[in-house]
């Protein structure tokens, strides 16, 4: 067995898949940054709000005022440099740090695919994605045809983890037995041409999409692994993500997943993509003849042993982190303790209403807070059903009114939440003084239990 493992880690393969992955990843990230900027989201999400929700342990990560635009500029430029493979190690490090900083600036904007980008860009720090078809290869007058096989397999594995966990977490009673929350979302798409007022309103279609989504996520990594099913699986990937893009406003995520899965194809496919890229560059009259070098050299790229160890440990963490929710009692979809960073995709539709009361604990005099005075509509919506955000906002309000001269400040919240079409119920213990509670990894006992049970993962 030891010999088998050693042989695997010594096995070499063509570096073209890494070159294509780097190129597509960098270009997609550049487009994402341009799109984010053009829609005015930098201002509305990071500059306009007077308060940002922080991740536990990262409360020091804050927007930089008008310089936030400069941060996005750095992120976009580094993404472009990653794509062309110029000073790759520095470029991917700058991209990882700048993008992750952006992601951490406000918890309101959390999305699974933002986390996926940070995860992948961290892995790319230790992978020889500039071995060939890069400006670095031209500058050093040395390129590499072969790289360790595990460098490509590690990217396949992280994609497999994302898909498989997304499917595994769909094995629950709400998703499979009630078609929730898809039933709510699909029936709201009545304005879609041709199918909005017909197929979308049918009960069977909601169940078809729920069960189909579960089987798709569970099976697609394995279908992509085998050559006989790979082409059909990729067609399925394209069809699935185009459909989700039409039905749901999930930004760049479908395109990221479609192009990322190209990594599963054999190296000859990637070499064709690189040759096609050369033709495009030639058409644009960009000198690119030297980029052919990586396809002709026969040198083996040697990756440091420390890089292998880091990747292996990191992948093990990605396998186990999603299971941390088992450490907490209660319904995960309700209390969300361990929900983030676990590849649980589109499993919940929650709506909440949270009214905060500022009380003088000695005189019992009180007044209610108008959340519009402190939060944007997007922040209010996300805060209203996420307990850690309710707690953080409660502390912010308490500290704010203390600074305004109020004495003996206690903060209470009257919070009601509905989950996947259920009637709303009380969410936070109304007798809990938020100022006396501290954020931690411990169980949040002040969350009222859900008056129902969701069976499954």
Please tag this protein with its features:
457 residues, alpha+beta, 2 domains, four-stranded antiparallel sheet, two-stranded antiparallel sheet, 18 helices, 6 strands, 51% helix, globular
Description of the molecule:
With 457 residues, the chain is α+β, with helices and mostly antiparallel strands. It folds into 2 domains: 11-325, no CATH class; 349-436, no CATH class. Helices cover 51% and strands 7% of the residues. The chain is built from 18 helices and 6 strands. The protein has helices at residues 2-10, 16-38, 41-47, 68-84, 88-104, 112-124, 135-139, 149-168, 173-177, 182-187, 203-225, 227-247, 253-260, 267-283, 305-320, 332-335, 377-383, 387-403, and strands at 12-14, 146-148, 350-360, 366-368, 409-419, 425-426. Helix 4 (68-84) runs antiparallel to helix 5 (88-104) and helix 8 (149-168) runs antiparallel to helix 11. The protein is globular. The protein starts with a helix and ends in a 31-residue tail after the last strand.
